[in-house]
Design goal:
The structure is a single chain. The chain is built from four helices and no strands. By secondary structure, the protein is mainly alpha-helical. The chain has a domain of 61 residues. The longest helix has 31 residues. The chain is elongated, with a radius of gyration of 24 Å.
Length: 110
């Protein structure tokens, strides 16, 4: 019986200890940073060759990537974190819709 009470007391002590979050690994967002840089470079190099619709798609993708990065690294309140998350979803959604529209104009309507 004392063995069971010892186990129970150990479990209670473990649950009372505050769990500290594990520190974030440095460089976990390196892929996101690379995507942001590549998107920005493509946008700057191809600005004169891109159509208006393609520019809008790249700008929306850049906004979505930057807002994802801001959501992960900026010290924002919960309210503003939700706003940034929704902004990211809206940018990605509009970029996808404009991409579908661009494909329609180039391949189906042409």
């Amino acid at each position: 019986m004392s063995r069971y009470s010892k186990r129970i007391s150990e479990k209670i002590e473990k649950s009372k200890k505050p769990s500290t979050p594990s520190p974030a690994k440095p460089g976990r967002d390196i892929v996101l940073i690379i995507l942001i840089c590549i998107n920005f470079i493509f946008l700057m190099i191809g600005w004169s060759q891109l159509a208006i619709l393609d520019r809008v798609i790249y700008i929306l993708l850049e906004g979505a990537l930057l807002s994802i990065y801001a959501q992960r690294h900026a010290k924002l309140s919960e309210k503003y974190t939700d706003w940034v998350k929704y902004f990211s979803f809206v940018c990605m959604g509009f970029a996808f819709l404009f991409f579908i529209y661009s494909c329609y104009l180039r391949y189906i309507a042409a």
